[in-house]
Give the backbone structure.
Amino acid sequence: MKKARSFSLKGEFEKVVRAADVPESDRHKHDFKCLDPHCDAHFHLVKSHRRKENTEKIEATFARNAGSKHREGCDYDYETIAKKHRYQSFVKDGKFYLRVNFPLGGKYSDRHPERGGLTRTQRIAAEHNTDKKPVASMEALTKFLEKEFGSLQSEALENLVLDYQGKSYPWPEVFTNADNYERLHSEAAKQDERNGLLVTVVPMRAGSENSKGKSRILCEPQDVELNGQHQIIQPVIVCETAELARKIKMGQALLVATRPYVSPEALSKPPEPGQKLNIYLYVHDDAQIAPVRNNVLHKPLLMATQTSRQLDLFEAKP
C-alpha cells in the first residue's frame, strides 16, 4: 500500500504516512498499521528498488507482515478480494490489479485490438494474463468497485491499477471527477500523445451533429483555473451512432472511458471572458459508459454565466 497509519513504539498513533516519505533510517522506529482505523493488520516498509536487470523501478510500499491479518471486510484486504475474483484481479507490489477489456479511448488499437496495433511489451503482458477474465464494460467495472469498496471515491482505490491491453493505468491518474477538469484539459492538450481517462460528466442536452454526422451531447461545464486564468470547460460527448446517444440519460451522472480531444485552434487562442472551451469525449461503444451515483461528484459544478450560455457552443469543430 502507498500509505499506512504510523504509531510510536509505545502504541501511540502519530499520523498517516506515505511509504515514499519514510526515510530508511526511520523504518524500525515506528509501527505501521492498515489505514482502516478498525483494522489491526500490521505492515512493514519495503523501500524503493529496481529489478529486471535494473530496468524496472518499484516504488516504496507498505507490505503486510506475515501472520498479520486484516479484519473481515476491510477495504484494504486486496489479497482476499483478489482471491474472490482470481480470474479478473491479482495483487502485485502492494497494488490491486484489475484487468479490463473495454476501450479506454478512440485509437485504432482500442477499437480493433485483434487487428494489431499493440506493442511487443503489451502483447507479452497480455499473454501472461491469459488466465484472467477481464471486466468487459464500464458498467461492470463500476458495479465491481462499488460492491467491493463501497464507492468509486474510496481511499482504498488509491492502490488500484487497471490493466488494459498489457498497459497499467493507476486509478488515481485516470479517474477524473467533474471538479478536476484541469486534468481533462491537460490531457486533451497533448493532442497525439493523449492517454485514456475515466471522466465523470453530467449530460445536459443534445447538441447539433458534428461535420461527420455524429450525435453530440453537452455536459455540465466546470469553471477551472488554467495558467492563472479562469476557463469554463464544456465536456461534449461525441457518439458513434444515434442509437448510442439515445442510451444516455440527461441529468444522470455518467462515467466515460475516453481520450479527451480539444481542437488545436481552440488551444491556440486565449479564452474570452465567459467563453466555453469544448473538450470532446468520443464514444464508439456503450461499454465505455456507465451511469454512476450523482453524489460521485465532489462538489456542485460551477455553472456558466448567463452571458456564456448565449454563446455558440460549437465554435470549435472536432
Summary: Confidence is low (pLDDT under 50) at residues 107-118, 304-318. Residues 190-309 form a domain with the OB fold (Dihydrolipoamide Acetyltransferase, E2P) fold (CATH 2.40.50.110).
